[in-house]
Amino acid sequence: MAIDVVNPYEVAVAQFDEAAERLGLSQAMRAILRKPQRELIVNFPVRMDNGDVEMFTGYRVQHNINRGPAKGGIRFSPAVSLDEVRALAMWMTWKCAVVGIPYGGAKGGVICDPHEMSFTELERLTRRYTTEISILLGPNSDIPAPDMNTNPQVMGWIMDTYSMHRGYSIPAVVTGKPLSVGGSEGRLEATARGVQVVAREALRDLRMAPEDCSVIIQGFGNVGSISARLLSRLGCKIVGLSDIKGGVYNPDGIDVFAALRYSKEHGNLVGLPGTEFVSNSELLEQPCDVLVPAALENQLTGRNAARVKARLIVEAANGPTTPEADEIFNERGITVVPDILANAGGVTVSYFEWVQDLQRFFWSEPEINSRLESIMTRSYRAVHDKAEEQQTNLRMGAYLLAVSRVAEATEVRGVYP
User: Fold this and answer.
1) Long-range contacts made by residues 41-48, C-beta under 8 angstroms, separation at least 24?
2) What is the mean pLDDT of residues 299-322?
3) Catalytic pick from 107, 177, 237, 386?
4) What are the DSSP calls for 347-387, one per residue?
């Protein structure tokens, strides 16, 4: 996937600065909210299957915890960097605030290639990393979740490792776990379900009927593949899909369930019958009504924004649009539902899971989906109304809401001592 070299933390800070300026925040408040509160870097050994010992570097960053415990995913990737984790932690702060969840923002990551590691090597890496960052973790202090290349099994290992150190089970220390150890119904689909809800609301505002809309989704992991299925169920025609190997396109529509089966059998989408191959960068420029970037940061940039043909962009990924691309989309009248709102379904149901674990009382999937729909709809409406009131776009509307809520909590708590 083509990526411009853009520092994600610089993007996150620039977005915050614009919101802070519009809100008239004091210089003291801007200084506090621009920087992460805590940054932990750990270097740790892992014994590989061949008996060798390799060193790995991991991070855990807490941006702001004035509204509640730190919350944020853990990713395993060769591309993990401290600035990426800082940016993602800051975005998590705003994401939790925009949907009214009582969490602060955090993020974690380990520099590794999980695709080159065995199941047992991944387990040893996860458990050692968890032990190294356990000084920050806790059900009332910092609660990780899945992210890129991590899954319910990895979360199960984190929960077990933390619990073994304490001597009893503490399921609320992590979310996105398997159901058998305190996971929540509806968690796997939560992010994509949130994408579906905000896409539906945005289409309504644009007076576009879902059954008349064509959709391209970049990324066919958990979020991208389930978004394709849910948007198809909404009535949209899926015309383009992609994964790490490349994209497939058919203006007459792609059978999502056939694509899911093909991807499972072949390991990727390349060669899907009835489609033409396009690169990931070319896919973003194909004709469609709705574009859903659900892959990596910095996919929509000043280099390609002028050639994007969608009327609506729904950011299922974190940070897929650079500020330069945002300006071009504004000038072209393209609506962008920002990441801190569009993909907040995941953290919302993570919050539900945490509450259920703390209470030892679990809800049904229909209850969870209903509560999620209510929160995502209400949050979209609040962002839309704020954007209308301030005569700005949805991204800035979301930032104005989120930053003001975090600033208020920070102001009320004061500066200690």
Assistant:
1) 41/82, 42/129, 42/132, 42/133, 44/128, 44/129, 44/132, 45/128, 46/121, 46/124, 46/125, 46/128, 47/124, 48/121
2) 95
3) 107
4) HHHHHHHHHHHHHT----HHHHHHHHHHHHHHHHHHHHHHH
Distance in angstroms (rounded) separating the CA atoms of residues 262 and 381: 38
83-92: pLDDT as tens digits: 999 999 999 9
**Total of domains in the chain:** 2
Computed on alpha carbons and rounded to an integer, the radius of gyration of the chain in Å comes to: 21
**Nearest Cα residue to 88 out of 62, 121, 111:** 62
CB 236 within 8 A of CB 230: no
Query: Domain residues for 209?
Result: 190-342
Residue pair 181/359 in contact (Cβ under 8 Å)? The answer is no
390 within some domain: no
**Residue 2's pLDDT band (boundaries 50, 70, 90)?**
very low
106 contact partners, CB below 8 Å, separation of at least 6: 60, 61, 62, 63, 65, 70, 71, 72, 89, 92, 142, 144
Which CATH number do you get for residue 331?
3.40.50.720
CA proximity to 116, closest of 50, 204, 186: 50
Active site residue 95: no
Considering the domain architecture, whether residues 338 and 201 belong to the same structural domain is answered as yes
Instruction: Note the pLDDT tens digit of each residue in 216-269.
Output: 999 998 899 999 999 999 999 999 999 989 999 999 999 999 999 999 999 999
pLDDT at 297: 85
**Nearest of 233, 255, 230 to residue 241 by alpha carbon:** 255
Answer whether 0.85 is exceeded by the pTM.
yes
The CATH number linked to 118 is 3.40.50.10860
Q: Give the Cα separation of 64 and 70 in Å (integer).
A: 7
Of the chain, the percentage scoring pLDDT greater than 90 comes to 95
Nearest to 87 by CA among 147, 143, 27: 147
